[in-house]
Amino acid sequence: MALHLSVLLLFAGVTGIHSIIQTVTKVSVKAGRSISVPCRYESQHTHHVKYLCRGSVFKSCSTEVKTNHQNSSGKFSISDDKHQRIFTVTFNNLPVGDSHYWCAVEMNDGPDIAVRFQLSVTTGSPQLSVDHQEITGFNGDYVTIHFESNISGEIQWCRLGSACVNEMSGSIDGTRVTINANVADFTVTLSGLRTESSGWYLCNKGHLQMPVHVTVKESKYHTT
Fold this sequence. Notes:
This is CMRF35-like molecule 3. The chain is an all-beta fold. It contains no helices and 20 strands. It has strands spanning 6-11, 18-23, 26-30, 34-40, 50-54, 62-66, 76-81, 86-92, 97-105, 113-122, 128-130, 134-138, 142-149, 155-159, 164-165, 169-172, 175-181, 185-191, 199-205, 208-217. Strands 3-10-9-5-6 form a five-stranded mixed β-sheet, with no helix packed on it. Strands 11-13-18-17-16 form a five-stranded antiparallel β-sheet, with no helix packed on it. β1 and β2 form a beta hairpin. Residues 7-18 have low confidence and may be disordered.
């Protein structure tokens, strides 16, 4: 099964040198709620300005929020995790409808690089949703993530920028992944958590993805 990630390759100057941004292709959210979308970039862009742009064509899109200038309306926010090399854009209280957005990185010596994704805001239940987009676990323990879906398709669990699990069980970077699928809802359990397991993951089903951020703390019994 192909990995459902949006990826842009822009060849710059010297043959063989390229830049890649990875993100979702399409996500859905119920009107009035919030959703965060991660965008992964390469190490040479760690200290560049990142931004979110709206529009179906990049050259004419409208910049909504930048890492060096936050959005005053409160509809959008952006943060940049330079250690993980992922910047995250968050959408709040958006109107019903479908819109195209771009995860973009400013380039100092050429055209900006960007990759497009689609956001669908619905009045009813989204076709793929998660009970909590932010999950916290503890070193050596496990977490179970609950999803609801009304679309068909195989379930795929991926770590953004890393491997995927297509079967009912497998592992990613040493963390065990178990997928328990039912007709309308399903769970993904991550066991044997380590601090290195922290980061952004994507659940893929059909034509949609749902990003989930996992934070692994040292121990639930740890005291300072």
